[in-house]
């Protein structure tokens, strides 16, 4: 009976722990956005997964890609965090960014566990903008 109680406690605690960890995801993305805005590509690179780091090799290459392919991320005017969804080990975070020209961009960040209780960015994709009509 005691073993069953321990197992039930662990099973019930797991979703709460995952939800608590998932709550840190906007902070990780926000810190990378701050680093990008300050042109601190070395710091921004630390929030990227090993796969992303391997693709770009250096913080300078990573920064050049962001400036070319994601200028709204490099210089956001406003950032709003939307929903999250879990898929396997990954959590996908929707983010809406308003750029300096007032245009809105919907993005989805794929986040993976870093092995130390935190999260790393494993990819960013453009997604259809959410419907904001009333």
* Count of helical regions: 6
Q: Largest sheet, described in full? A: 4 strands, antiparallel
Outline type = globular
Q: What would CATH call the class?
A: Alpha Beta
Q: Unreliable segments (pLDDT under 50, ≥5 consecutive)?
A: 1-17
- Architecture per CATH nomenclature, i.e. the level-2 architecture: Roll
Notable traits:
Nuclear Transport Factor 2, Chain: A; alpha+beta; 6 helices; single chain; 46% helix; 28% strand; disordered N terminus; four-stranded antiparallel beta sheet; 134 residues
Describe the structure.
- The chain is α+β, with helices and mostly antiparallel strands and 134 residues long.
- It has one domain: Nuclear Transport Factor 2, Chain: A (Roll).
- Helices cover 46% and strands 28% of the residues.
- It has six helices and four strands.
- A four-stranded antiparallel beta sheet has the order 1-2-3-4.
Offer a concise description of the structure.
By secondary structure, the protein is α+β, with helices and mostly antiparallel strands. It is built from six helices and four strands.
């Amino acid at each position: 009976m005691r073993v069953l109680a321990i197992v039930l406690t662990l099973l019930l605690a797991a979703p709460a722990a995952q939800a608590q960890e998932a709550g840190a995801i906007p902070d990780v993305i926000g810190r990378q956005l701050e680093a990008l805005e300050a042109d601190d590509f070395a710091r921004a690179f630390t929030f990227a997964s090993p796969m992303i780091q391997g693709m770009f090799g250096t913080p300078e290459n990573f920064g050049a890609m962001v400036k070319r392919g994601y200028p709204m991320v490099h210089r956001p005017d406003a950032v709003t965090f939307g929903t999250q969804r879990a898929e396997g080990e990954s959590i996908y975070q929707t983010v809406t960014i308003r750029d300096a020209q007032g245009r809105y961009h919907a993005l989805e960040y794929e986040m993976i566990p870093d092995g130390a209780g935190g999260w790393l960015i494993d990819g960013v994709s453009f997604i259809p903008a959410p419907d904001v009509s009333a």
